[in-house]
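2.7 Reproducibility. Because tokenized structures are sensitive to small changes in the input, we list the exact sequence used for LON peptidase substrate-binding domain-containing protein, including any N-terminal residues retained from the expression construct. No trimming or masking was applied before prediction.
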Amino acid sequence: MTVRLPLFPLNSVLFPGLVLPLNVFEERYRAMMRELLKTPEEDPRRFAVVAIRDGHEVAVAAPGMPDPTAVPERGPAAGFGPDPLAAFHSVGCVADAATIRERADGTFEVLATGTTRVRLVSVDASGPFLTAELEELTEEPGDEAGALAEGVLRAFRQYQKRLAGARERSVSTTADLPDQPSVVSYLVAAAMMLDTPTKQRLLQAPDTASRLRDELKLLRAETSIIRTLPSLPASDLTRGPTSLN
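Resulting structure tokens (single pass, no recycling of outputs):
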């Protein structure tokens, strides 16, 4: 079973259950938001988010920006080469836009939440914005997911403490952390300070248990590294920056 949705490529990975704030200013994505606003408020306003493998999140809008040799690009696939499908990672996440607010200048402020993992089947660049045919992926628990989730939560709390100590700040309470294995796996994947390829690997893990095993190794390794560092630049552990698209 496949579904066709608007496609929003980013230089980051969205996980199910995580909140995604967007500052939408490019015309192709403004057109997408105008189209989504046609959906009745009681129905989900859905689009798919995929991480960019090879390309630019923001298309070149003027000569020399940001590359001195660059020339302006236009169209829904600008910045993604002749084959947009090859420019993106194959697994992404559906986002449900709870808030789409148009500003006076025509840009949009959007707040969405990741819902379901999807696999890219094809990308269509014939319209004002990219759309994609997507295959929804089920989340299988795998073996010993419950026990692994408990271990990951313990390791994550230790990671938080080490990270807070390296930043010379107090750690926030973790008493309200979830215990459902799949939710734990996505929360930890989003919260850890990892590069995009590693986060992408976690998103496309074959099942929850496999993701948790990978996270347990990463948490132990990262905690060990942090222990040796005198300080780290301050940043909010569980929040990523708003995408400027």
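The chain has six helices and six strands.
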